[in-house]
Structure formats: C-alpha cells, structure tokens
Write a structure and sequence with these properties.
The protein has helices at residues 2-16, 97-188, and strands at 32-34, 39-43, 52-57, 61-68, 73-77, 83-87, 91-92. The protein is an alpha+beta fold.
Length: 200
C-alpha cells in the first residue's frame, strides 16, 4: 500500500515539472476537469501537508467551489461527491479527451454524412450537366440540319423562280414573235376593192 502511494506521489511530482504554465482564475463552476494524462491527490485542506482523501483520475469532471491563491490550491467536488482541495495548476476548464471523444466522433459522423450527401448531390448535378450537354448537342445537330434544309429549299425556290422567269420570257417572246409575224402577213394581204353602188 505504501509503495502504491509512493509511486503515485512520484508520478504527481514528475508531472509538476511539465506544468509550468499559470492557471487562470477559476470561478465556482462545474465546467472544469482534471487535466489529461495524470492523476492527482485530493487533500482535506489547501496544501500538500493536509491529509490525502484519495486520488482523482485525469479527465474527471469536477465542480470548483473556491480557490486559495496563496497556497495555489482549489477546493472542488468530484463526480463521486467527495469534497477536497487539489493543486490549481491541475484544474482545467477544457473538456477532457474522454468526454471529447464521443462529441468528436458524433461530429465526425455528421461530417461524413454531410460529405456523402454532398457527393451524392455532386453526382446528381454532374448527371444533370451531362444530360444537358447531350440535349444541347442534339439541339445543335437538329438546328444544323434545319439550317441545311432551309438553304436547300431556298436554293430550290430561287431555281424555280429563275425557271419560271425564263418560261415567262420565252412565252412573251413567242407571243411577240407571232404578233409581229401576223402584222407582216396582214401587210401583204391584197385589199378588197369597194363596189360602187349606183341607183338608177
């Protein structure tokens, strides 16, 4: 039993060498924890000379009751309802890793779900984009075919107009020629002599 307490004391002392940062003023609150990666002793008073009530593991949520700035000890109540004093430098207002893990895991799951949703939405939008591109390609092909058909029909109409114009000119020339020919023929026809009618 003595060896166990000595080992715990040695571990606590070893962590003191790495805890040189000053702890901010602690108000009475339950949003405090014993810092991770260590365990400390709880004393009956604000000092190491007071009787040890037990140890508190790292990450244990505690309620801060008071603080002795001179002795650098903080009065707390732990999760087992024990009330005592611990060194202030081992008290933190940062949530322990053990309690952060479920929250981080939940946030990670939410992030992964949001990522999957975003990926699904991205795939759907990509499919819509591909469909739209195919539709645009079809419409472009149809438009080009219609433009080609319009050009062909326009050329056909122009050719028909030219043919009809030539036909009308030909017919007009024929009519004019026949008229001239009739005029010439009428010129050479013998004229009838008028009869003189005498009344007796």
């Amino acid at each position: 039993m003595i060896r166990k307490w000595l080992a715990a004391a040695l571990i606590a002392c070893s962590f003191q060498a790495f805890s040189l940062q000053d702890t901010a003023d602690l108000e009475a609150s339950s949003s405090h924890y014993i810092r991770d990666d260590l365990f400390i002793f709880m004393h009956t008073g604000p000092g190491r000379n007071y009787r040890i009530l037990g140890s508190i593991e790292a990450g244990t949520p505690i309620t801060v009751l008071a603080r002795d700035n001179d002795a650098e000890f903080t009065q707390i109540t732990d999760n087992e309802g024990r009330e005592g004093w611990v060194e202030s430098r081992f008290v933190s207002n940062t949530m322990s890793q053990a309690e952060q893990l479920p929250i981080v895991s939940e946030k990670l799951a939410e992030s992964q779900s949001a990522l999957q949703t975003a990926q699904s939405e991205n795939a759907r939008l990509r499919q819509q984009l591909n469909d739209a591109r195919q539709q645009v390609s079809k419409l472009t092909t149809t438009s080009e075919e219609q433009a080609s058909e319009i050009t062909r029909l326009t050329a056909k109409v122009d050719s028909a107009n030219k043919d009809e114009l030539v036909t009308w000119f030909t017919r007009g020339g024929m009519v004019a020629g026949v008229g001239i020919l009739l005029g010439v023929m009428l010129t050479y026809l013998p004229k009838r002599k008028r009869r003189n009618s005498e009344w007796m």
